[in-house]
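Repro:
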Amino acid sequence: MSRVNAFIAELVKAANDTGSDTRFKKGQLLERAIITICELREEAGIPRTKKADEAIAYLQAVEIAISQKSEDDQLVRKALLLAAGMIRDLHIILNNH
């Protein structure tokens, strides 16, 4: 399993983990996901777009909410799955180049 695929699996697993004791871990995963998404976009030569910037801003807002302990579990789950999907899509794009 590639490093990217392993990270995607980790994001999905965290999204499905309902334990509140993993709040810090989920915040760290979102932070890593944001960095990974930006790096993969750059590696693929994909220009910044308003829609992509909004998705990153959304993930960052959820990450901040986690750090402030004001997040909703469903919101965190949605953000983790969104990040996993974005990374998966970028990984596919890079593998087809």
